[in-house]
Every structure is written in C-alpha cells, then in structure tokens.
Write a structure and sequence with these properties.
three-stranded antiparallel sheet; 415 residues; nine-stranded mixed sheet
Length: 415
C-alpha cells in the first residue's frame, strides 16, 4: 500500500522485443530509469495488470518513483515559431524563433533569386539568420542552385549566416559541391524512391553525391527519403548502408494534409523494421564502428546521453524543446520529439498543423526505439556509451527535414 501522503509519479514503460520492461520513463522528471534484467518480465507484467505488488512498490521507492512531493504545476506550452509574412507572394518566409530567425526558400525558383537579391540590399538583414533552401522540395536544378549559392557567397556578414540546403542527389554536380564546400553548408540529400525513377540509377546518384560532399563538409550530409505506399524502411536502410550513407532518415508520406499515412502493414511493421535497425546500430557500435545511423533514433540517443551526463541539469537542448504545440503537452514523448515543437504549413500561411494520430504513432515508435538503444548502450558502457557519436546540444543551429506535405523544424535555443 502507498501511504496517503505519497504518490506514484507518472511513468511510461519501455518494453523490448522480448516483452520485458527494459526501462521506465519518469515523465515528471524526464528521466529514463533502467530495470534490472532479472526483473524486466515481472515489472512489465505487473505494470500491465495495473495492480503494483510489494516488489514493484519497493523498487519504485528506491528509484524515486514514489514521492511525497507535490505535483508540479502545469505551466502550459510555449508557442511555436512565428511566420513573418511580407506583402504579396514572397519566395522566402521569415520564421522567428525568438533566439534566432530563419529565412526559408521552400522551393528554389527564379523568384527566389530576385528575393534573395532584395534581402542582400540591406547589408545587415541576414546577419545571424539561418538560410534554409529547398525545404518544401529538394532542389533539382543544379544551374539554378549554383546561381543561388554564388549570391549567398557574396552576402555581407556571410560568416554569421547558417546555410542548410536540401538537394536532389543528381543536382550535386562538381561545381555545386565546390560551392557548398566554400560555404561550409549543412546539406540534406534527397533519395528519390518514386516508382518512376530507376532505383539502381538513383542509388548510384546518391553514392556519387556522398563521394563529392563527405570529404569536404564540416558536418556529415544526411540522406532522407519519402517512404511511399510500397516502401519499407528496412529496405531503404539496407540499401543506404551498401551505398555508404552514414546519416539516414525515412519520412512517411501523407495524402495532401489530411489523409492517412500509406505504409505497407501498420505501425507495428515500421516498429519491427526499427528493431532490426537498432540491433544493427548496436552491433556496429559494439564493434567500434558507427557506419550508418538512423537519425530519428540517433537524435533521441544523443539527447538522453547529454541528459545523463548533465546529471539532470537543464541543458540548452532541453530549454529549446519547451517550445511546443499545446496539443503535445500530454504526450509522453513531448520532451524527446523534435516534431512536437513546430509544424508549419508548407504553403506559407503560418497555419500550424496539429499533430495527427497517424503521424505521431510513427514518431513515438522511433523515440521508443531510441530509448531502447540508449538503455542497451548504458547497460554495457555507462561511461562512454560505446563511443556513440553524440551531437553536443544536437540542433544548436537548426536542422530541417521536409516531405512535400510535412514540415518538421528541428531547432534548439543557444546556451
């Protein structure tokens, strides 16, 4: 029995493939608490029954899940980014994150060049701003992109301007790669899985783009791809490893803005694919390698490692993650979900999408997989986590990944 003055903190069990409870997420303290191997099946069974026994209650007391502290007050969610509109139909949108501003050229067209030129008239307009190019559709026109990059190179205060370009694999020509190197840009390469595209030829284009960019950029290029009706995440993962991809993300595509996600099978199929991917990531790390990381999982692991090393102190990353939609405030993954903070209408109207149950199921599966991988790393190497390549304050500048219908801004406030 729990004394009247005590209460159980809200928790979420992290269940592994063997149906054991590998860890418990303390939702109140944002803390992932490991469960000893011999107790995992018992804890999972008792939590599922809803009737905690004396063994479970004793363990919960030991790890601080039973407390006499008063419940923390719900202060509500901070607002997401503000879209600052200019008159007419602008090629660029200015997103105000409070700590910094980002200009978004969602689709690179001739009008984009004209608007960038207008921005550059004011020598200080881009100072300490982020410049995101190709967010709503990877840049396919290498010549147009090169002209855009040349203009950016001539920008005043270029050294304080963060640049992120999403580009089709085939548009990474040698001149484009040289310009991206000079600008030290952050680059996302789009792998086109469309049925109309020859899959072998596209895979070779991705490999060529990586060969040109990996040696010269300060940050490993990420490769992302829209997963369509007949695409499996595991198939993409296997092919990506073969082609030398080191940072991968799969994006579930939706019909327009309201339709359900099309994916073979269900979320359970996606979770099964993630389980295999996590196993392979763990095996690579145990062998002293980190050849390919699935980024949605890796971001969660990075965040949890930073949280572990900070001994519960609030980090810059955690502060940034408070800027979320109010509708996310009751979700158990809100502290760890990069999507929860801002979903902005790609059409530029500033209307923020509410998280949809179909999207969120996939995102929760990714975060669940990240927590399982973190706990496995912590179990075998609590000090170094098998040298997992942690992104310190991951997203301290910004990271944007976007399918045609789903914008996901990943940002953190600077320290």
């Amino acid at each position: 029995m729990i004394p009247g003055s005590f209460r159980i903190r809200p928790i979420y069990p992290i269940i592994d493939r063997h149906l054991g409870c590998r860890a418990v997420l303390d939702l109140e303290r944002s803390k992932l608490i490991p469960v000893e191997d011999e107790n995992r099946l018992h804890v999972a069974s008792v939590l599922d029954s809803g009737n905690p026994d004396e063994v479970l209650l004793a363990w919960m007391t030991d790890v601080g899940l039973i407390t006499a502290e008063a419940k923390p007050k719900d202060e509500g969610a901070a607002p997401g980014p503000i879209v600052v509109e200019s008159p007419g139909e602008p090629a660029a949108r200015l997103l105000d994150f409070g700590a910094h501003l980002e200009w978004h050229f969602d689709r690179l067209e001739e009008t984009s060049l004209a608007e960038l030129e207008a921005l550059l008239v004011d020598n200080g307009v881009l100072r300490r701003h982020g410049l995101v190019v190709g967010a709503a559709g990877a840049v396919n026109d290498a010549d147009l992109l090169l002209r855009f990059l040349t203009m950016v190179e001539g920008a005043p205060h270029r050294e304080t301007l963060g640049l992120h370009v999403t580009v089709s694999a085939g548009a990474v020509t040698l001149p484009v790669a040289d310009a991206l190197e000079r600008l030290q840009a952050k680059v996302t390469i789009r792998w086109n899985l469309s049925p109309e595209v020859d899959p072998d030829a596209e895979a070779e284009r991705v490999a060529m783009a990586l060969d040109r960019l990996q040696p010269v950029l300060p940050e490993e290029p990420q490769v992302d791809s829209d997963l369509g009706p007949d695409d499996r995440l595991l198939d993409l993962w296997k092919r990506a490893r073969q082609k030398g991809v080191r940072r991968l993300e799969g994006i579930q595509v939706e019909h327009q803005f309201l339709g359900s996600i099309h994916y073979p099978g269900t979320v359970s199929v996606f979770a099964e694919d993630l389980a295999v991917i996590v196993d392979e990531m763990f095996q690579d790390l145990a062998a002293g390698q980190s050849d390919c990381l699935y980024q949605p999982v890796a971001r969660v692991v990075s965040y949890l490692i930073q949280q572990e090393r900070s001994k519960g102190r609030r980090t810059a990353t955690q502060v940034g993650r408070e800027a979320e939609l109010a509708s996310c405030s009751t979700c158990w993954v809100k502290e760890y979900c990069s999507r929860s903070r801002s979903l902005v209408d790609p059409a530029g109207s500033g209307r923020r999408f509410l998280p949809h149950e179909n999207r969120c199921d996939f995102w929760r599966a990714e975060i669940h997989a990240g927590m399982l991988l973190f706990d496995r790393l912590r179990e075998v190497d609590r000090e170094r986590f098998l040298d997992f390549p942690v992104e310190e304050n991951a997203g301290s500048d910004f990271a944007v990944s976007l399918s045609a219908f789903d914008l996901k801004l990943d940002y953190d406030l600077p320290s």
